[in-house]
Here is the input.
Amino acid sequence: GQQLNQSPQSMFIQEGEDVSMNCTSSSIFNTWLWYKQDPGEGPVLLIALYKAGELTSNGRLTAQFGITRKDSFLNISASIPSDVGIYFCAGQLWAGNNRKLIWGLGTSLAVNP
Amino acid sequence: DAGITQSPRYKITETGRQVTLMCHQTWSHSYMFWYRQDLGHGLRLIYYSAAADITDKGEVPDGYVVSRSKTENFPLTLESATRSQTSVYFCASSEAIWTGDSYEQYFGPGTRLTVT
Here is the structure.
């Protein structure tokens, strides 16, 4: 099935560092969603983006919907230990007429206190 | 408690057995989804439902059956479990906004299924 290219696959950083991850595709999307999954839990929605160029923040998290509609990035500033987890991007295809999302394979984040 | 719940949280079953995973949501969301999550594959859609009595296949439907007689419930049945169905299963729901502005899905806590 179609998937998004999410990178990096994993990151190991020091507490206080900034983090950046992104998702790209050859297809055009009309929605980008960013989720975080803690160990043993279901994914939790962090940020939803609906317009090309849109830049949205949620606390220390900032996400942008790429101008080309084919990519999105998520930044985390001043990381803390509780940021540990797997971050997923998901997108809704421009031509999609149903609620199915295309998912990235995730970015695993580890934070060293 | 409002939200989306799944039961059981953990299940061990034998090859060939039938097993049903339950999903219940209290938001009255129209859409519901079943995913499986495996290392290296991310989240893969098994089935989804747009409303009561309306279901459709996702990416990996073989070996699974769903039903949706009530809006709030969306059970997933493995008719004859196989080892390849060992996975973590997530249920999700999404509100129907007919302007098309919302595709946000909200997930349950998951069911970890082991088939021996």
Q: What stands out?
A: Chain A is about 0% helix and 55% strand. The CA atoms of residues 34 and 89 of chain A lie 5 Å apart. The interface with chain B takes residues 1, 3, 31, 33, 35, 40-45, 48, 50, 88, 90, 92, 98-101, 103-106 of chain A (CB under 8 Å). The mean pLDDT of chain A is 92.
